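For reproducibility, we list the full input for the N-acetylmannosamine-6-phosphate complex.
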Amino acid sequence: MRKLPRGIIISCQLEPGDPVQDVSFIVNMARSADYAGAVAVRTNNADHVRAVKDSVSIPVIGLVKDRNYQAFITPTFEHARDVIKAGADFVAIDCTRSERPVQLKTLFEEIRSSFPDVGIIADIADEADAELVSALRPDFIATTLCGYTPYTLGCSLPNIELVRGLSRKMSIPIIAEGGYTTLEEVQNAFQNGAYAVVIGTAITRPWITIKKFVDLFYKKFN
Ligand SMILES: CC(=O)N[C@H](C=O)[C@@H](O)[C@H](O)[C@H](O)COP(=O)(O)O
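The corresponding predicted structure, in tokenized form, follows.
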């Protein structure tokens, strides 16, 4: 298995439409993750991967989101190559049953033959996705896309049942990802077999956290 210790992974990504849009935010979040003892940082686009890689000592998981495709996380070899050349130690790939431009088998083979030292994280949405991709032996399977495919839309997050089912069935380590916001949920994921847990929005999109407090005020005291 490519090196990724057990623990907490922080996803630091800028989302279109968010009030924060500068790379220094991503870098400072990644530094904070490293300082606090997180085991890896997950970030998108080559320029952010490069900036984060230059600033932290922990592994970087790179991806590219391309909404031209239904399978939108690192859908082609070119996307993967860009983040790997920028310094990604792992690349996250959309391994759902959504429509894709290149067959998964081909994509895995291309990445493995060009970059044998780079780990592959299979982002899946349900157990059927995980079973299908397990034949390609990804280094990790992450529950990232549960709730984001037509066949998992509306599924409540975090999906700890999915983590539990996968951890029992699969010999590949499972990364719990998607919708983790409380210590209790993270603890629950580890207790149910997660190898690592990714936390993004709850930490790295502060306007969403702030809005919860603001909404409470307007709802109850105004
Ligand atoms: C679905 C999708 O595009 N997920 C992305 C994957 O890289 C990120 O936007 C998420 O922030 C990440 O998965 C962590 O999840 P959460 O932000 O819920 O803690």
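The beta strands are 7-11, 40-44, 60-63, 90-94, 119-123, 140-142, 174-177, 196-199. The chain has a mean pLDDT of 97. Both points were considered when choosing residues for closer inspection.
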